[in-house]
Amino acid sequence: MYILDKIKKNIAKAVIQALKKKLVKAADLVYPPNPEFGDISLPCFNLAKELKKTAVETAEFLVGKVSADNIIAVKAIGPFLNFTFNKARLAPVVIEEILKQKEKYGLNKNGKNKIIMVEFAHPNTHKAFHIGHLRNILTGEAVARILQANGYKIIRANYQGDIGLHIAKCLWGVSQLKKEYQAVKSEPIKARAEFLGQAYALGSKNYEANAEVKQEIIELNKKIYNQDKAVMPIYKITRKWSLDYFAAIYKKLNTKFDRLYFESEVFKSGREIVLKNLKTGIFKMSQGAVIFEGGQYGLHSRVFINSEGNPTYEAKDMGLAELQFKEFRPNKILHVVGPEQAEYFKVIIKALEIVRPKTKGREAHLRYGWVRLKEGKMSSRLGNVVLGEWLLDQAKKEVLEIMKGARGPARPAGGPACRTGRLKNKLEVAEKVSLAAVKYSILKNGLDKDIIFDLKESVSFNGLSGPYLQYTVARIQSIMRKSQITNPKSQTNPKSQIPNYKLDDTKEQAIILRLAKYPEAVEAAGRNYDPSEIAKYLFELAQEFNNYYHSAPILKAKTDVRRARLLLISAVKQTLENGLKLLGIETVEKM
RNA sequence: GCUCUUGUAGUUCAGUGGAUAGAACAAGGGACUCCUAAGCCCUAGACGCAGGUUCGAUUCCUGCCAAGAGCACCA
Fold first, then answer.
1. Residue A409 pLDDT > 50
2. Using one digit for the tens of pLDDT, what is the confidence trace for A482-518?
3. Residue A237 covered by a domain
4. A394 and A340, same structural domain?
5. How would residue A108 be classed by pLDDT, with cut points 50, 70 and 90?
6. Are A368 and A392 in a shared domain?
7. Distance A553 CA to B32 C1' (A)
8. What is the gyration radius of the CA atoms in chain A, in angstroms?
9. Positive or negative, the Cα torsion across A497, A105, A580, A5?
């Protein structure tokens, strides 16, 4: 149990003892908006109701009756009972917790013995890979890491659409672009993937504009479902292009999957499940198609098997669920999918629940908002998309420019020279920093919010940004390196030095408190499946550190203070690294 | 038309049934011969509108307005 949890528990206990009634729990405690009020606070409104007093009276009544370990002051401010921590005692405890536990600091066991499958990415083959997919992957990966930190066993799954009408549209497009197809065969994988995106857009436009083409594409689709020899070779080749391309992107983003599912492996079983339950009356025939009537549940009706006899996405999902539960027995499956499928998921989760009652409460749609363009809508159908890889490339270019010193604030004469130009691993650093910029700029947003994407504004390298956090870590690394040079014996070993703590500065105390709150951020992020909780926390910590850094000398401080400060900043570094890892962001030694 | 999501500063985002609504960017100003200026400090600037519930609403409820999404054989 982390120190803050202990303190909260003790306070709740003390209040219960004072009242001789169990009216308070640790979770009722909140953090005051202003540190002058205290470090933690009990709002007395609910308590007052029970005690038939006003909240102000209740708070005053409790002052003097409540005391707990690590608390040095209790005061009533209006309806709040505020507690002040003994920070001189807290500091070594918190720092020791962090430096001993290292990368394990912040982890908890809330999900012990539970399995959660996080299903994300699921790009469709034969379609462009755009920044919407990027948000999906980054969100899914971060959620997976966060849940892992909360003690769950995680299965990363990816369900890829390699069969269905979109493939037929693309292959029709390819048939119209024979020359280009031949030419692109010898090009790098990226060019081949882009070609498929164009072919898809072409097929899609004609499907809507031209009735004859529409019929041709429908015929082609049937052939693909029937594994017709005439189309299989080109289907297989282009499918592989897409998959190879996706694999390269996953690698770049540092995401791995435990299981890749394909629509082509579940469409048969999905179809069977639906047909079987036609007899039981769960599904019904309607206008030649097999549907699920959602009306009685306040949902809409959806087609599971179309009048051509082909399973739709809905039926495939039935087959997928069956397979997923059979293979991994997850307690929960989180489908990380955009908002456009919100109603869709309600329907299939309901249908699944009726077909397989055991799945009840175990299937969830983890929805995130759109990535929209400032200029308007983005659609792979229309071909006006911002490609995921293009964004990564742009970000990297930008970082290299900054490293050159061509951009950014001008330095006054006499200031230290820009070091980044001399870095040996310049490209590696640029790669990590640009990835951090892109990842953070997406993950800092609340899940439900749409992201209005604009290259200039969205991917930032200063302020609330990934590079800002990396920079903070690099800065601490630098101080620690120098501390070794100036005093090789000053190892940051917590055990031997804890007695020497002298951290009285209010800024230091604020940092200590912030560090102690990290486990709560991990917990909240896990509870809400929300990476932005971590993103916010890290920024606040970094900001507090940077402010502190500018006001307090570390290496030049007196021996005792210097030691204590070095330990403090290494705890900051550790916590930043731990949190960044949950977001999938790597740190660099120098930048 | 029905359902869902979102409306907070010039812009992009935080935030909570409670104590003074926080940041970042942009704007304006400033400090350092000092541990990385991708940094630090200061200034200015906001809860879509109208009701309701409540001791208290930016937060919950209702209506309206605005933006986005979904609503039968696409995924």
1. no
2. 987 766 555 555 554 554 556 667 889 899 999 999 9
3. yes
4. no
5. very high
6. no
7. 13
8. 29
9. negative
Between CA A447 and CA A431 the distance in angstroms is: 26
How do residues A230-257 score in pLDDT, each as one tens digit?
Answer: 999 999 999 999 999 999 999 999 999 9
A380 sits within 7 Å of strand B by its CB: no
Q: pLDDT tens for residues A534-551?
A: 999 999 999 999 999 998
pLDDT at position A296, please? 85
Say whether both A353 and A320 belong to one domain.
Answer: yes
Q: Please give the tally of structural domains in chain A.
A: 3
Around Cβ A326, how many Cβ atoms within 10 Å? 8
Instruction: Kindly report the CATH number assigned to the domain that includes residue A53.
Output: 3.30.1360.70
Q: Are residues A402 and A362 in the same domain?
A: no
Q: Is the CB of A50 under 7 A from strand B?
A: no
Flag whether pLDDT at A456 surpasses 80: no
Looking at the C1' of nucleotide B35, which residue has the nearest alpha carbon? Answer: A479
**Same structural domain, A306 and A157:** yes
DSSP A516-531: HHHHHHHHHHHHHT-T
CA A372 to C1' B4 (Å) is 19
Separation of A20 CA and B17 C1' (Å): 27
Flag whether pLDDT at A438 surpasses 70.
yes
Decide: CB of A92 under 7 A of nucleic strand B: no
Instruction: Determine contact, residues A512/A99, Cβ cutoff 8 Å.
Output: no
Domain limits for position A355: 120-373
Distance CA A17, CA A65 (A): 9
- The nucleotides of chain B lying under 7 Å from a protein CB are 3-6, 11-15, 18-20, 22-25, 32-41, 55-56, 68-75
- Considering the domain architecture, whether residues A397 and A520 belong to the same structural domain is answered as yes
A55 touches strand B (CB under 7 A): yes
Instruction: Kindly determine whether the C-beta of residue A427 is less than 7 Å away from any atom of nucleic acid strand B.
Output: no
Residue type, A545: F
Q: Are A192 and A184 within 8 A, CB to CB?
A: yes
A514 strand B contact, CB < 7 Å? no
Question: What pLDDT score does A411 carry?
Answer: 47
Amino acid A465 CA to nucleotide B24 C1' distance, rounded Å = 8
Q: Which residue is nearest to nucleotide B37 (CA to C1')?
A: A411
Question: From residues 313-352 of A, which are strand B contacts by CB within 7 A?
Answer: 313, 339-344
Mean pLDDT value of segment A315-336:
96
Residues A399 and A543 in one domain: yes
pLDDT at A377 over 60: yes
Taking C1' of B73 and every protein CA, the nearest residue is A306
A314 belongs to a structural domain: yes
We report the CATH number of the domain holding residue A155 as: 3.40.50.620
Residue A294 lies in a domain: yes
Nucleotide nearest to A40 (CA to C1'): B19
Angle between the A165-176 and A232-253 helix axes, to the nearest 10 degrees?
110
The answer to ipTM > 0.90 is yes
Task: Examine residue A107 and state whether it is found in any structural domain, yes or no.
Answer: no
